[in-house]
Amino acid sequence: xxxxxxEAGVDKEEGYRAVELMKKAVAxxxxxxxxxxxxxxxxxxxxxxYENPVLVSxxxxxxxxxxxxxxxxxxxxxxxxxxxxxxxxxxxHGAKPIFFLDYLACGKLDAEVAAELVSGxxxxxxxxxxxxxxxxTAEMPGFYKVxxxxxxxxxxxxxxxxxxxxxxxxxxGDILIAIPSSGVHSNGFSLVRKVITDYxxxxxxxxxxxxxxxxxxxxxxxxxxxxxxxxxxxMAHITGGGLPENLxxxxxxxxxxxxxxxKLRVLDIFKYIQKEGDIPEDEMYGTFNMGVGFxxxxxxxxxxxxxxxxxxxxxxxxxxxxxxxxxxxxxxx
Length: 333
Known about the structure:
Layout: H1 12-27, E1 53-61, H2 65-72, H3 78-91, E2 96-106, H4 111-128, E3 131-139, E4 149-160, E5 175-180, H5 189-195, E6 202-203, E7 206-207, H6 208-212, H7 220-229, E8 232-237, H8 242-246, E9 255-259, H9 268-277, H10 281-285, E10 292-298, H11 303-311, E11 318-325, E12 331-332
Parallel strand pairs: 2-3, 9-12
Antiparallel strand pairs: 1-4, 2-4, 5-10, 5-11, 6-7, 8-10, 9-11
């Protein structure tokens, strides 16, 4: 008996319809460096005016935060998360994100849902100034359940070799400047979901899912503006593992970052999660960003100027500590 691809669970026509629905959102991310449109076998991007460019790449996903989005049927923010996780990492080395590709997988494709997910990706790319130049939508019946989606992405940035930021010049007395997170961002959700099982539960006058689905903040534009004016010695994107895992990665050998807890501005959602789950403080700091999404390491003389520059972009940055001589690892006190 003859059997079709559609009868096997893959609807090509729905895939074509999804692409058509995505095109408008994707178009707003394009710029003159993109040399071809969607539909080619490979995407082409012209680097432009660099003397000695270095490409910096990163890939990531959204993790189990997706489960909250799928349960509440709110699909338009997690795409921003997928972009943010990649572009913020690339940014840590001083690179400007230039293009992004997304990967969307599901059990049964719904063109409207897929388009909404990718509209979030496009919005994230727009915020980061990166072109969404391609991607893949994979319908995988029997592998993913109907209604399940997974989303991930890949970003490439570029930086002049002479302007790479890698933490190698950080030294004793340097200042740690924090840029606030927008919330939980995209890490620690396996623990969040153990603590919070009812996403409709009221929190600050609305379902807690709305707070949990607040997208990861994209730091590209304000940080690039700082890099134009100041010598930033190191940068860290505070993701899985929190400050203890991520901040030491941008500090030179023989030095350690010191973070003063009284200077941190811990967001209420973390206090709520800690109380509801009776979670020890060290577990909180080792899992969540605790209100700090991105950290810059700068010379003391540049501290005020950097904070003022970030304020122009609406970021209320603040000092959280300093660099001292010591063994690798975070000193949290």
